[in-house]
Structure to design on (192 residues):
């Protein structure tokens, strides 16, 4: 952060001054002279950020929606997401916490999934979901803290809970098509 302050083109009713810092943060000095550092969205500052990145959308258009839900003990994590993915044209996992009684994981460059006995804590779950299929990576830890991970497959049974937050894009469509180079169904992204 530099000592210089740059005046923002907009001023609030309190006559605050904003100066841009690194990482999209802005420092504001209100009429009392107190300094605060905040992260502001482009709507709060109404800066022409859309032009900078070449995004041609109206501000009111919804691009991403968020769905949050919980899976109960005994449910199959992969099959539950597979069932819901039929309703999602372009979705991705934002967050997942919980535990598994057992996980079914396909390790790198292996043709079949390997069962991993639990109980296991879900450390991460990430990937994409669409009606054509799922591509999900999971990492889990056992009761001694040993971590393993790979491709999540059917047979991963919830132990106590699985709390998921899923983002869906309204301006994209995800598809899976077999790639001649890899031999796997790979992601294809279409703009709507």
């Amino acid at each position: 952060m530099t000592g210089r302050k740059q005046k923002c083109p907009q001023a609030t009713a309190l006559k605050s001054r904003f100066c841009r810092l690194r990482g999209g943060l802005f420092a504001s000095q209100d009429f009392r002279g107190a300094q605060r550092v905040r992260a502001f969205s482009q709507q709060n500052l109404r800066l022409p950020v859309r032009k900078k990145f070449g995004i041609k959308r109206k501000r009111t258009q919804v691009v991403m929606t968020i769905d949050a839900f919980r899976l109960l003990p005994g449910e199959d994590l992969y099959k539950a997401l597979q069932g819901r993915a039929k309703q999602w044209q372009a979705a991705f996992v934002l967050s997942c916490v919980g535990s598994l009684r057992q996980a079914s994981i396909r390790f790198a460059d292996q043709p079949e999934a390997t069962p991993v006995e639990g109980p296991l804590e879900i450390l991460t779950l990430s990937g994409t979901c669409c009606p054509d299929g799922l591509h999900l990576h999971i990492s889990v830890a056992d009761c001694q803290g040993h971590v393993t991970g790979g491709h999540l497959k059917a047979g991963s049974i919830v132990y106590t809970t699985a709390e998921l937050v899923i983002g869906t894009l309204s301006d994209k469509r995800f598809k899976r098509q077999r790639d001649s180079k890899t031999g796997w169904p790979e992601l294809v992204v279409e703009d709507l």
Notes: Residues 163 and 170 are 23 Å apart (CA to CA).
